[in-house]
Design goal:
It is built from eleven helices and ten strands. By secondary structure, the chain is α/β, with parallel strands linked by helices. Helix 1 packs across helix 3.
Length: 284
């Protein structure tokens, strides 16, 4: 793979997925795309990039994008965002949406489903406080392959041991040989959909709560600003956005403002003229 071929691949990935691949990631390209060559019976990476540039195979293009997308996730990943949901956001919206009894949640870049299913289990646990409520959980990802796994809700022993409390494993999973499948009642709570964040996603909204964690880090500043602005447009006036621990809006957009009480929590910004909400009181 020559420098020109690598640059062509970088341009393709950025245009099609927003992924801003740095110049030091050639090793990553080689390790992830070599199996694609084998799968499509292509001689080498140079020929693969040539085929991508030709535009003759949508299947090959999609396979390359999916191979370069990071799908690292696990149940209750990083814990704090789920404590935030359980102890702060959910009680607040139960109170503020008491009249409508409706709540809409979006998990962007949901990967194999552990994040939205974690939220669904927390909602199920809180159902005694939410009689008659209608809750939508929309979970999106750019990879059809991981979405298929997410919809099936089947995980191996290693996957259910990463972050999932034993109590919830026993309560909401059924063992199938050496694998575990999440209960139909939890699977039915999540609507998995294909979505590329660089495309228009206005048809999804509006939302009360948005989880968009550990995906913006792969975008350049301009793309981050674009995605954040469009997320803010979908959020309810008092809605909340949860980003990953290493992600920030600082110097990127004024469409959102940081909640000083909680790390990674954002609201619509007054400066942007699109509403605001009060800072929540509770655990930090």
């Amino acid at each position: 793979m020559t420098e020109l071929e690598f640059e062509a691949l970088r341009a393709f990935l950025k245009a099609r997925s927003g992924l801003a691949l740095t110049v030091d990631k050639r090793y990553l390209v080689e390790s992830r795309l070599t199996p694609i060559c084998t799968r499509f019976k292509i001689e080498n990476l140079s020929h693969l990039i040539r085929e991508i540039k030709s535009g003759r195979s949508a299947a090959l293009e999609n396979a390359a994008i999916e191979a370069m997308t990071t799908n690292e996730t696990f149940f209750f990943r990083d814990k704090a965002p789920f404590d935030l949901f359980q102890d702060v956001l959910l009680p607040r919206f139960i109170k503020e949406r008491a009249a409508s009894r409706k709540l809409r949640i979006w998990c962007a870049a949901a990967s194999t489903g552990q994040e939205p299913y974690s939220l669904a289990m927390l909602l199920k646990e809180a159902s005694v406080r939410m009689p008659g409520w209608h809750v939508d959980i929309i979970a999106t990802d750019i990879s059809n392959e991981v979405l298929e796994k997410a919809r099936a809700g089947i995980y191996n022993q290693f996957e259910v041991q990463r972050g999932l409390p034993v109590r919830l494993l026993v309560k909401y999973f059924a063992q199938k040989g050496d694998q575990w499948q999440i209960a139909p009642e939890i699977r039915s709570m999540v609507d998995f959909r294909y979505l590329n964040l660089i495309d228009d996603f206005s048809r999804l909204g509006p939302f009360d709560i948005v989880y968009c964690r550990n995906v913006l880090i792969y975008f350049d500043p301009q793309m981050k600003a674009n995605v954040l602005r469009r997320i803010a447009q979908l959020m309810a006036a008092d809605g909340s956005l949860v980003l990953g621990a290493s992600e920030t809006i600082l110097g990127i957009t004024d469409a959102l403002s940081l909640d000083p009480a909680y790390r990674g929590l954002y609201a619509k910004s007054i400066a942007a003229g699109i509403g605001n909400r009060t800072v929540l009181a509770g655990v930090r």
